[in-house]
């Protein structure tokens, strides 16, 4: 069977090259609003998004992520003009899953409106540093919030990468 949702799930790719031009507010709001409909454990809607479009703050999170990576020579967010940081409170048993569902929903929403995105890792360690905790406090995030991941978001530069073939034996059906 085929439909637009199945198609978006299959054509989405991790995008690692972005045009410098900023996405429109309408595009951003479409992706964010879709994210608010992601499922969450006990329907608690526990995850929180912080959108970075500010140049100075972008430089700061690029450096912070690079420091965790151990390589500050490249941009781990691939120069995307928008980065959505996702947090969730560790006192909820499903906080990693909640944040992960949110990130996936954001990625598929981005794909469905023609935007490129890439899930980026290491936000947990970034926001466990003193610098990270200060930023979280500035943004009004409670200390129990943990970085789950981030989404680089923007217009795709160049061609989408070719996907790897799906591996054999991905699922087992027991009837
Ligand atoms: C939990 C998770 C963490 C990821 N972290 C990164 C990352 O830090 N940097 C990156 O370039 N891609 C990252 N990715 C993207 C994956 O590398 C990408 O999804 C994978 O190579 C498959 O490619 P596709 O998304 O185009 O199918 C991450 C994906 C997931 C699900």
What are its keywords?
single chain; 175 residues; alpha+beta; NADH Oxidase; four-stranded antiparallel sheet; 6 helices; 4 strands; binds flavin mononucleotide
Describe this structure in words.
This protein starts with a helix and ends in a 21-residue tail after the last strand. The chain is an alpha+beta fold and 175 residues long. The relative contact order is 0.23. The chain has one domain: NADH Oxidase (3-Layer(aba) Sandwich). The longest helix has 18 residues, at 95-112. It is globular and about 50 Å long. The protein has helices at residues 4-11, 25-35, 55-69, 95-112, 123-126, 130-138, and strands at 48-52, 82-89, 116-120, 145-154. 37% of the residues lie in helices and 16% in strands. The structure holds flavin mononucleotide. Residues 13-14, 16, 118-121, 163 line the site of flavin mononucleotide.
